[in-house]
Amino acid sequence: MKDIAKLDGALTHRETRKRFHSKIEFTVIPAIDNLEIDADVAGWLVSRKICLEHMKFSTEVTDKPLIEMESVFKHVQTLDLYGCVNLTDQSLYSIRRNCLNMRVLHINSCAGFSAAGLYDLFEMLKKLEYLDMNNLRQLNKKGEVELFTALATTCGATLGSFNCSDTFGMNDAGITAIASHCSKLINADVSYCAKLTNPTIIHLAQSCKTMQSINLEGCRKLTSTCVSEIALNCPHLLDLNVSYIDRIQDSCIIDISLNCPLLRFLAACGCIQLTDESIISIAEHCKQMESLFLTQTQLGDASLFAIGEHSPKLKLLDISQCDHFTEEAVMAVVEKCRDIETLHLEDTRHLTDATLVALSQCSQGLLEISLDYFMDGTAAGMLTLVTHCTKLLSLYITGCTYVTDEVVIAVANNCPNLEYIDLTGCVLLTEAVLPVLAQKCTKLVSLTVIQCPMISSEAVDVAIELTDASIYR
């Protein structure tokens, strides 16, 4: 943006500048990924009268520059205020007056907005299609019904996606108001809204029959009953997250498998009452399955054999911290699900180099693998893996105390697109790996060498000068 502003300042011909501003407004800025508007950018946009359809503000922005942008808000369709903790209801008032065509709004973690300010805003958003308001912990029971009734009655005909995750004050009345008026809702994230109960989720399922994605993670009061109702009422369901709900049982997951054949994503982490019966049913009936999160469950080999046999489209599997799988079952998935891109095996027992060799032969499209505390492997096995899985973007091998410099240097030589690598507790590593990673992995974002006693702070300081990545020691 500074370069654009500099070029703009050098133009003196009026018509040339006008054409330049039009080009910037409709072509250049929309193509810039992750452009964040801070006070300086805001001032420049206002001075040049450049109106954008999509605006993402810096988390440091305050009310003053945002309010001063009123004149360029008229075309805004997407407004992203994620983490803008310094904004207050003054900004909401300005948005309310000028962003009447807004379709997408992110106000997650905006702690300075009051329920009253949000109420006034919601009354004006008649075209809103997507609302992300997770982690608004200032909401409370007192004004919740009125707030969400205002939202639902105003944009009930258009709202398709709603996220109030981690909003501790969210209770049944608020979600009931949404469900009662927003029949076109297709995506709902109410994860960690711990006060929600079965009747509310049942009402949501019965009212929003075109629901495609619902996230109930951490809603601990819920039971299998409401999930079975989702299965019966939402046949188009694609994504379901019931992780860390203690009372989820086989019956509701089987209902999902029988009634939601298009399901492609299932997360049931920490659902310790589940048995192989439910996952076998998912594998047999949900042929579009792409992502399975089953960490911290009591599932056994039968589940993995079924996944390997019936889930050819699987791209992600998380079976970390599961103690009841044998290597034979894990290898069955590896050998048959050849499109796997993400695999989490951290802290999983009974696995050896045989798994690593199988991955090197069958999963050369791997983008991310987590092998934290892969205790029965060897440096030779790791070397085989990283030599053949050359598309890796993320590699996590915390606690693999046998990993040597040779392995990490092989990563640098064979995985040029690597972005994340965690070598915490790889005690045999020396400082020699740092410059190789820094120079050869040019896309590196994060490198962790915590608890690597032979890597000094001085060596990290030198490596920092060679890369833009964050290095943690």
From TrEMBL:
Chain ranges of the F-box/LRR-repeat protein 15-like leucin rich repeat domain: 71-205
Domain of life assignment: Eukaryota
One Gene Ontology cellular component: SCF ubiquitin ligase complex
Transmembrane segments: none
Single GO biological process annotation from the record: SCF-dependent proteasomal ubiquitin-dependent protein catabolic process
PANTHER family: PARTNER OF PAIRED, ISOFORM B, PARTNER OF PAIRED, ISOFORM B-RELATED
Protein name: F-box/LRR-repeat protein 15-like leucin rich repeat domain-containing protein
Organism: Spumella elongata
